[in-house]
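Render this sequence as a predicted structure.
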Amino acid sequence: MKNGTKRWGFVANQELNTASGITVRGVLNMVMAAVDPEDPRSTIPLGHGDPSKFPCFRTSEVAEDAIVEAVRSAKFNHYSPTVGILPARRAIAEYLSLDLPYKLSPDDVFLTLGATQAIEISLTVLARPGANILLPRPGFPYYEARAAFSHLEVRHFDLLPEKGWEIDLDAVEALADENTAAMVIINPGNPCGNVFSYQHLEKVAETAKKRGILVIADEVYDHLAFGSKPFVPMGIFGSTVPVLTIGSISKRWIVPGWRVGWLVTSDPSEILKKTKIVDGIKGCLNISSDPVTFIQLGCSITTWATRVQILETASMCLQGGALPQILEKTNKDFFRKIINILRQSSDICYEKIKEIDCITCPQKPEGSMFLMVKLNLSLLEDINDDIDFCYKLAKEECVIVLPGIAVGIKNWLRITFAVEPASLEEAMGRIKSFCQRHAKRPQ
């Protein structure tokens, strides 16, 4: 004690501040704070991947009814098993197996609190002393934040805009060493809107095998592909290299707030069991939370119902009020509608960008909900960088766009096109007006 002041024995963990660094949420909160509350115009959010606020992106009635029935049954008010409820895990295994050359088991599936927890678990399990992980640039910054908190060294490989945002595989080979645990790929791409071809993913698998590393495949936007390339799951190459697949229902079903995802091992050779990675995943789940039980059930039967081929399996797995509703009402129209809206909106966004001199889009989006555009600051007055651009755009036009620095590349912008088409047209018009107002005048 000094001068009557007690010395307290606690202090905040400063590593949390270091680990959080630049996050999408933090940057967007800063940008949104610039919006003028007196501006009568509505604020148009083109900065995040949550289209659920727009009526055209409402989830299916089948999904809503499944949740209601699960709650009303009173059969799912108990704690969940550590790895998730068996019918839900079996349903996800069946759902993913339809796109694979082999069949997944429920034991390959671990339920998580959204894809975010799946990322946390993956990186925590791999974070042995001295280990490093290879991450894409641009990418999803939560990987960097979680790696920093887990004392896992990060090394970045570039995605190449001139090649449709393909992975620089030569860089992957050069970066990997005996302490490299894994590489992360995001497909369909956040933030670039790219979709990797079968041939490119095959090369990814061969490169990872050559360097002795596993692949963490972030497939949160699975099947949200609307261009020339179909979605190909990385798990197809599980016989070449072990794959940890991260997924959720957040994007395809437009329910990010439901917070249910999965971590799946695609590993027919059982390398992940032999190296104790599976044991590590179970250990992490033992000391963490899990999705609420009624959502696990509700989401699992929603997933079953999307694929007619596995309804018989579902009927053997489940007894309850939700199944008859799913069997009667679910069809492919919901997914077709979402894809059509995303295709229309991406076309609008891409074409409107062509009308704006100071931003260029190197690759038309073919999937997910985003595209990346490059800023040409030499054509603008009084705009210092991408953060300054977004801050002033929010202040002057009530349009929210994410600065590229938040996803790893400075003086680029990530634009979300998963909004109502009419709102998107309005937003792109405001961006064009902003750029014209700030355009550098001829000397």
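Summary. The chain has two domains: 18-56+334-437, 61-329. The two ends are 67 Å apart (CA to CA).
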